[in-house]
Design a protein that fits this description.
Elements (H helix, E strand, L loop, with lengths): L7 H9 L3 H4 L7 H17 L10 H17 L7 H14 L12 H7 L2 H12 L4 E4 L15 E4 L5 E4 L13 E7 L5 E7 L5
Parallel strand pairs: 1-4
Antiparallel strand pairs: 2-3, 4-5
Helix pairs in contact: 1-5, 3-4, 3-5
Length: about 200
């Protein structure tokens, strides 16, 4: 086990507990639950370490998926209040930035909240079971400002669209099972779609 200051539990002790009066003045956060999540994460990291010495690539991606799947089996954070979910993301990110959306749905919350019934049916159970969702919004010319999106769709036959454009800094590029892709619809509206990571193109 790493030194207490670099563990998920250490993140609570070192950073969050001293700020508790500011972060949670009304005492609404279940700090015991947050500690349990942190302990589960520390155990998962012992089984599947992803420290800075492990470079990006297939093995790191495999371990990140295993950590998420372990946590999905052991603790469900999707119904937690928003502030508790944010604190959980901080605790995970404190251990490694790649772990910041290890709990809950991560970018998959966009699918849960705004996806079509078909998209929700296809993806939500998989995300709850541990699959990861990535997001593709940033473009070379405009950064992460969705209003400047140039990627666009052209209507095809049978109600299909063909999407063309360039994205950079795509999150979870090598781990995601699904990507939330932002682009312009044929009528110019800014929209998003859930794209299967295994689809060609």
């Amino acid at each position: 086990m790493p030194d207490g200051g670099t563990t998920a539990a250490g993140a609570i002790t070192t950073w969050l507990r001293p700020l508790q009066p500011v972060l949670d003045p009304g005492g609404r956060i279940d700090w015991t639950r947050l500690t349990v999540v942190a302990e589960r994460l520390d155990h998962a990291l012992m089984r599947h370490p992803v420290g800075p010495d492990l470079p990006a690539g297939a093995e790191r991606s495999r371990r990140l998926r295993l950590i998420r799947q372990d946590l999905a089996r052991e603790v469900d954070t999707t119904a937690d209040p928003d502030l508790l979910q944010v604190l959980t993301q901080f605790v995970c990110g404190y251990c490694d930035i790649d772990l910041r959306d290890t709990t809950g749905l991560g970018h998959g919350r966009l699918i849960a909240r705004h996806g079509s019934p078909q998209a929700r049916q296809r993806w939500i159970l998989r995300l709850l079971a541990g699959d990861l969702a990535g997001i593709a919004v940033t473009e070379p010319h405009g950064g992460s400002r969705p209003a400047e999106t140039h990627t666009c769709a052209v209507a095809g036959s049978g109600g299909t669209w063909t999407v063309t454009g360039r994205k950079t800094w795509i999150s979870r590029l090598t781990e995601a099972a699904v990507f939330v892709l932002f682009f312009r619809a044929p009528d110019g509206r800014l929209v998003a779609a859930a794209i299967d990571a295994n689809e060609p193109g």
